[in-house]
Design a protein that fits this description.
The complex is a heterodimer. Chain A is mostly helical. Helices cover 68% and strands 0% of the residues of chain A. In chain A, α2 packs antiparallel against α6. Chain B is α/β, with parallel strands linked by helices. In chain B, 23% of the residues lie in helices and 22% in strands. Chain B is built from four helices and seven strands; from the N terminus they run ααββαβαββββ. In chain B, β6 and β7 form a beta hairpin. The radius of gyration of chain B is 18 Å and the shape is elongated. Classes of the chains: A mainly alpha, B alpha/beta. Chains A and B meet through α2 and α6 of A and loops of B.
Chain lengths: 261, 160
Amino acid sequence: MFPTELNTCKMKNEALYNYVLRLGDDSLILGQRLGEWCGHGPILEEDIAMTNISLDLIGQAMSLLDYAGELDGQGKDHDALAFLRFENEYRNALLVEQLNGDFANTMMRQFLFDAFRKPLYEKLTASSDVQIAAIAEKSLKETRYHLKHTSEWIIRLGDGTDESHQRAQKALDLLWRYTDELFSETEQDLKLISLGIVPSMSEIKDQWSKTVMSVLEEATLVIPTNNWQFEGGRRGIHSEHFGYLLSDLQYMQRAYPNMKW
Amino acid sequence: MVSKETILSLLDEVYDPEIPVLSLADLGVLRGVEYVNNEWHITITPTYSGCPAMKTMEDDILLKLKDHGIQAKVHLVLSPAWTTDWLSQSGREKLKEFGIAPPEDEVDKSVLFSKPTIVPCPKCGSRETKMVSQFGSTACKAHYQCLSCLEPYDYFKCLK
């Protein structure tokens, strides 16, 4: 290869690594959060549903982080990336690391995320990068089930009793401030967009808004008028909750390096 | 050297650890068997991304072949993504006999605006059944109950 070509290839890999790492970290951290419900669900069916969704997310994280490791070329697999990075090296959005709170809060967080992931995976199935396209094709089928499940709950809770309505509205008021970050784009992403590897986030946001608006309307919930937004997770700057989550997630590998069972 | 047919018939004896009546071929998880560079390469695909049975299936394949003195490697592919269309006809019948309702050819759209897919009871055949939960005992199943004989059962949910 000519030096310029090699350079382009290296830049592309680095950009793609960062992109895939973000996707993988979102899945991993949200999967970990949802897993905290195991044995604590409000009803047995929901306990099983949340852990099923968690399992899908962690499975997607394995594929995504394996691919990130491959692009990085330093021999790291999904375990190395999941268990052996420091807090500021994770690139998940702040939304997914937020505490579970009550059931309404967990469902709202999941709904806002699923409504983002579904159109994103739909677009990524057409990626010019075959591995991204394959992971998206697989994950999309699972994500459709997740979005259906959470949409239903948002409607049921929002348009339910006074108590459930109040809690769902409170969750929306709390979590809305973390939604813009999902659609942030870096300089490197623009390169990937121009190469047809990833879609532009404005397209995804349009579809997200459509889904979110129609479900929230059906649920009689109101989008907060204060649109103050937080960001940071995509740059490795996380909320205080994140350290506690990581200490749970990483405990075994940190206490007993390389342990297996 | 053993033939591909031998390998395939050996793999017919490797079952889904969660649904022990289904072979990997019935399930549609087995994608390919090839002999390259003095080694057998077996390709499988996951039903769901996080299916914890995949690792067991991989180990079971290697163990089965090793028992017959055959060295092999197992590879995981994601595309084309597995759907319930990959489930064989005999697999569907075995599921039903086992007490699990096989996938109807329709993705459940019940959430929000339409009625759930009708899944006949695998025990009594009644069509008077209800979905208890979209998510069941494993990633690939939903939880149903028969309203006629009251049997609770798993539905191997349709994935397209």
